[in-house]
Design brief:
By secondary structure, the protein is α/β, with parallel strands linked by helices. The chain is built from nine helices and eleven strands. The chain has two domains: about 100 residues, 2-Layer Sandwich (60s Ribosomal Protein L30, Chain: A); about 170 residues, SPOUT methyltransferase, trefoil knot domain (Alpha/beta knot, 3-Layer(aba) Sandwich). About 30% of the residues lie in helices and about 20% in strands. The strands form two sheets. A seven-stranded parallel β-sheet has the order 7-6-5-10-8-11-9, with helices on both faces. The chain has a four-stranded mixed β-sheet with strand order 1-4-2-3. Strand 6, helix 6 and strand 7 form a beta-alpha-beta unit. The protein starts with about 50 loop residues before the first strand and ends with a helix. The N terminus is likely disordered.
Length: about 300
Amino acid sequence: MSSEPHEQRRHLASGSERAPRLGGINRISAEPRMDGAQPGHHAPCKLDGVNILYGINTVTEALKARGRAFTWVAVAKERKDIRLQRIIDECRKIGVPVRVLSRMELDELAGNTAHQGVVAATSAKQYSDLDDLVAARRGERSLIVVLDGVEDPHNLGAILRTADAAGADGVIIPERRAAAVTGTVAKVSAGASEHLPVAKVTNISRTLEELKAKDLWIVGLDERGEQTYDQVDYKMHCAIVLGAEGKGLHDLVRRHCDFLVSIPMLGQVPSLNVSVAAGIVLYEVVRQRRLGASKQS
């Protein structure tokens, strides 16, 4: 490569989650509140066009990241603890209205009972431009995760959390036939989705060629890969490509990879969950790069 010589050679084979309508709920509870939270005044709670985030970590990280506009944050009148109070204090500091609702009302807003006593109405996740994502490199070498059609929001959330923990620069997802960054994804990611750049692209194969033009090497995880994932030298600018649940990489995407690697399976089950596989490969990248850095020092 022009920017960083490398012994390995290419071997090319050729939004939003809308909040549920509030059924019979048409007012904000005027109940006793935690310090700083404002009781409602029986005004309608309109949610058309509003995105819902829920969960303590999710809302906390979204407030920290400043990547969304907050319409309001609602907290459970039944819950009074320091973690919720910190959210209220942060909202008061930056001017976000705080509402006090019953747990049943929060259940309806979130669409589930996993909200931990806090729900926020926000703007949609702001997706990054591909060029900006590549340019905003976090470390000495690029590390980008490309998802070829991951459809389960829980898998996407888990991958975003792991990618952030492993120091990845960002994640690329397709616009169609794939999970987007919804409230569920944000919750599963424990708020990592609010900090990690995510780019939506129309064509994964074309995007891989664009990444190659930017001096990234493309490593596809595929059960038919002849190399194991730990046989590749990741001390290079690279993108890790993961396929859809049950389907793996599309044939065209596979042909655009420079390396195809597999994870050895020693038991009876033929493959791993895609989010687990992502963790294994990403932390091999981390291991190699840290080892290389320690040797240089």
